[in-house]
Design a protein that fits this description.
about 475 residues; 20 strands; alpha/beta; 17 helices; CBS-domain; 8-stranded parallel beta barrel; globular; TIM Barrel; 2 domains
């Protein structure tokens, strides 16, 4: 990457401060761009779901990995739960969605609690493991919540055989005017679910899979307590990337934690952070990190900069840290501050191999929170930062009430924030489509076919606040 007119910035830059200049390009199509990363994480698109309790759960991990990304399970979750989630993700199909299933005798009230767990908003009604109907939210309107599902389900059921090619599945669904279909094995038992949209996505994305062909998943650990013991348990459970995580990654506890993890001789990449300087990168690499997480304060839920004055504008942080990581043969993940597809592209331009996304994905069907509705009927989920009251309470669950109360006095972060579902893009896959489309277009403008080539070729300029505003589309006339 180089700055336009070889300008040397006089101050650190955020994503809003910069823009990319188009170059002569022979990349004629977005589909001619390869977004797989080279940091050994196994991602085929440069998206990592941040290890936030309100964002990264098993549904998120399954869905994102199927599209080529990676989710990092949070460190605050009990170890037995994390290991069970890892096993669950590993046993999911790489093409078919895991369906919500109900029995004909289940009630509409029970069903309505389950439907928001999937973006397609449907459940398969099964008897002895075989599908007998499909039921959606629309089927449940204007009926008593104690009504049995069998009375409202659709019996106009199209099933498709396991192993069917996505294009053929799409054609069958389109011909029959069906939005989705259960996948059945040779005995007629339910094996998954496929929508028309998922059929298309299966031809556009490559799942992030391990050497056994199973979906990839990462997990985080903190720097306190039995670091090596928790890391060993996660490695034995089959985690694909181990993330040693704390807000201030450039400290002695992190160095010690990294060394203890490296002492286990993990055969998977170890990511660590967060830092914002070249010296921080050098120290964490020396302690055993393969990937460095970069970012202090740019996240939507983070009050670090307002509370402490500590942090660094994210574009400059990623630029400096990635340059040092490259010199050392390592990689960085840009963690925080992305709110638009352009920000993801700019993080890659600055040298990141993957971009971590947290709050942006909190307002989707796949995030762990319960779907709620405000007074105007708009759907939202509650999001909270990892230094907030809720997160700290989870981390200190084993402390005495006195210690919990003491630590609560110095909590940071936003305790909760409403993340509204975008009516046009309510599912995480919808957001991934938007992000990947934007990033692929950025590559074509730069004349780059890969992430490495993009970083080498891209030219970045510095703009005023008015310049940034000028680039925003107007949804109503002026």
């Amino acid at each position: 990457m180089r700055f336009l007119n070889d300008l040397i910035p006089q101050y650190d830059l955020t994503y809003d401060d910069v823009f990319m200049v188009p170059a002569r390009s022979d990349v004629g199509s977005r589909l001619g761009v390869d977004l797989r990363t080279l940091d050994s994480s196994g991602t085929t698109i440069p998206i990592v779901v941040a290890n936030m309790t309100a964002v990264a759960g098993r549904r998120m991990a399954e869905t994102v990995a199927r599209r080529g990304g990676l989710a990092v399970l949070p460190q605050d979750i009990p170890l037995d739960v994390v290991t069970s989630v890892i096993n669950w993700v590993k046993t999911r199909h790489v093409v078919y969605d895991t369906p919500i299933t109900v029995r004909p005798t289940d009630t509409v009230g029970d069903l309505l609690n389950l439907l928001p767990k999937r973006a397609h908003g449907a459940a398969v009604v099964v008897v002895d493991g075989r599908p007998v109907g499909v039921v959606t939210d629309a089927d449940c309107q204007a009926v008593d919540r104690f009504t049995q599902v069998g009375q409202v389900m659709s019996r106009d059921l199209l099933t498709v055989p396991a192993g069917i090619e996505p294009e053929e599945a799409f054609n069958r669904l389109s011909k029959g005017h069906h939005r989705l279909a259960p996948i059945v094995d040779q005995d007629g038992r339910l094996a998954g679910l496929l929508t028309r949209q998922a059929s298309l996505r299966a031809t556009l994305y490559e799942p992030a899979v391990d050497t056994l062909g199973q979906l990839r998943v990462a997990a985080a650990i903190g720097i306190n307590g039995d670091v090596a013991g928790r890391a060993k348990a996660l490695l034995e459970a089959g985690v694909d990337v181990l993330v040693v995580d704390t807000a201030h990654g450039h400290q002695e506890k992190m160095i010690a934690a990294l060394k203890s993890v490296r002492g286990l001789d993990p055969q998977v990449p170890v990511a660590a952070g967060n830092v914002v300087s070249a010296q921080g990168v050098r120290d964490l690499v020396a302690a055993g990190a393969d990937i460095i997480k970069v970012g202090v304060g740019p996240g939507a839920m983070c009050t670090t900069r307002m509370m402490t004055g500590v942090g660094r504008p994210q574009f400059s942080a990623v630029l400096e840290c990635s340059a040092e990581a490259r010199r050392l043969g390592k990689h960085v993940w840009a963690d925080g501050g992305v709110r638009h597809p352009r920000d993801v592209a700019l993080a890659l331009a600055a040298g990141a191999s993957n971009v971590m996304i947290g709050s942006w994905f909190a307002g989707t069907y796949e995030s762990p929170g319960d779907l709620q509705s405000d007074g105007a009927g708009k759907l939202f989920k509650e999001n909270f930062g990892m230094a907030s009251a809720r997160a700290v309470k989870l981390r200190t669950a084993d402390d005495s009430p006195f210690e919990q109360a003491r630590k609560a006095i110095f909590e940071e972060g936003i305790s909760s924030s409403r993340m509204y579902l975008d009516p046009q893009r309510p599912g995480v896959e919808d957001l991934i489509d938007s992000i990947v489309a934007g990033v692929r277009s950025s590559f074509t403008y730069a004349g780059a076919r890969s992430i490495e080539e993009f970083h080498e070729r891209v030219v970045v300029g510095i703009q005023s606040a008015a310049g940034y505003t000028e680039g925003k589309p107007l949804h109503t006339s002026w």
